[in-house]
Amino acid sequence: MRFTAIGLSFLFHLTLIGGSTGSEVSCSSRLTTPRGVIQTPNFPRAFPVPIKCRWVIDVSDISASNSSIVVYLTQVYVYKGLRFTEYAYYESESMNFGATLIKEITEGNVFEYKLFRTFRPFLVIEFELDQLEGNHVRVLNDLLDVYGFNITYQMTEDVPNPDSCSVQRCSYTGNCFMSGDYE
User: Fold this and answer.
1) Rounded to a whole number, what is the distance in angstroms from the first to the last CA of the chain?
2) What is the pLDDT of residue 168?
3) Which of the pair, 66 or 10, is modelled with greater confidence?
4) Which distant-in-sequence residues (6+ apart) come within 8 Å of 31 by Cβ?
5) pLDDT at site 110
6) Could you say which DSSP state residue 160 is in?
7) How far, in Å, CA of 80 to CA of 82, rounded?
8) Could you tell me which residues are beta bridge partners of residue 70?
9) How many domains would you assign to the chain?
């Protein structure tokens, strides 16, 4: 019984972060938990390109009077291809309404924000990239060897944590990790 629970937990974790056992990378899912982590496959290492991912954060079934989705841009090492769009309703790519682009990561704003917040029940995070070369912003041990992103989200009624960890706060060289309780 314990082995099954651990195995299922491992498979869920692989699905959540985009793990795949085949040659095609699967990195899209619908997230309905109040908090979680979203990252590119193989983060912080290189991942197969071209890549096209879509994560839908759906908190429509979580009852709260003043709920919001807060996204902490913990480690963002790409300066293009990442978009955040809020929706009043989202069933699929062709069946949705109330779309508003909140943020699109560009070379000019990649380190501008640590977090953002939406009061809509759906947040769609899209990531599309054709090539790795020239699209990442940090070095680690070798020249330009940190790729992709690692972000944390939570549904909350509280004020977002203004002291959240971010790449900029780590002086672009540290590793920033959220604690187990996402603080």
Assistant:
1) 32
2) 60
3) 66
4) 16, 38, 55, 56, 57, 58, 153
5) 81
6) P
7) 6
8) 117, 154
9) 1
The residues facing 151 across adjacent strands are: 38
Residue 16 sits in which domain range? 2-156
Residue 171 DSSP code: T
In this structure, is residue 50 part of a structural domain?
Answer: yes
Residue 167 lies in a domain: no
User: CB within 8 A of 46, min separation 6: which ones?
Assistant: 132, 145, 147
Supply the CATH number for residue 59's domain.
2.60.120.290
Q: Taking residues 102-118, what's their average pLDDT?
A: 88
**Which residues make beta-bridge pairs with 9?**
none
Classify the phi-psi angles of 112: left when phi > 0, otherwise alpha if psi is within -120 to 50, otherwise beta: alpha
Looking at per-residue confidence, does 169 or 69 come out higher? 69
Query: Which range, of 100-104, 106-110, 149-153, averages the lowest pLDDT?
Result: 106-110
Rounded CA-CA distance 171/168 in Å is 5
